[in-house]
Design brief:
single chain; about 160 residues; alpha+beta; OB fold (Dihydrolipoamide Acetyltransferase, E2P); 2 domains; four-stranded antiparallel beta sheet; 4 helices; 10 strands; fatty acid biosynthesis; Biotin_BS; Biotin_lipoyl
């Protein structure tokens, strides 16, 4: 570190952090030379979990009724019941993209809650890199829950639908 005042170095680092925030930057790296053997290297990084927040938000809405139905179960059981991706009939996203419930805007959705589906039947579409990928039902049964809205972004492994 620098042989100069630590307070001056702290003020310099705080100024860099403010510069990072005020200019919507995610990373800033600076080397400050004081003399021949005297320098300060600083790297300031701002981390963000935007995608995680967007995907995690719907999960509690759908999980609340399942947790209430469990009642007086042990503490570990409600945590497992709250995660729709752990449900044996869950269809999860095989890719990152935008989810569509119908073939085109204004068309009837592929399935609705209560609909009976066969294994391999298209239940929704995920658009990735301008390609429409048909997502099939992984099992035959009845659609119990649809966990995504039309036109929403999804991550790999995100629960999309529950079929029982």
């Amino acid at each position: 570190m620098s042989k100069h005042s630590p307070d001056a170095d702290v003020a310099f680092i705080q100024a860099l952090a403010e510069l990072l925030n005020s200019n919507d930057l995610t990373e800033l790296s600076v080397k400050r030379e004081y003399g021949e053997d005297d320098s300060l290297e600083v790297r300031v990084v701002k981390q963000s979990n935007i995608v995680t927040t967007a995907v995690a938000a719907p999960a509690p809405v759908y999980a609340a009724p399942a947790a209430a139905a469990v009642g007086a179960a042990p503490a570990a059981a409600p945590a497992a019941a709250e995660d729709p991706a752990q449900h044996p009939g869950a269809i999860t996203s095989p890719m990152v993209g935008t989810c569509y419930l119908a073939a085109e805007p204004g068309a009837q959705p592929f399935v609705a809650i209560g609909a009976t589906v066969t294994e391999g039947q298209t239940v929704l579409i995920i658009e990735a890199m301008k390609t429409m990928n048909h997502i099939p039902a992984t099992r035959a049964g009845t659609v119990k829950r649809i966990l995504v809205s039309d036109g929403t972004p999804v991550e790999f492994g995100a629960p999309l639908m529950i079929i029982e």
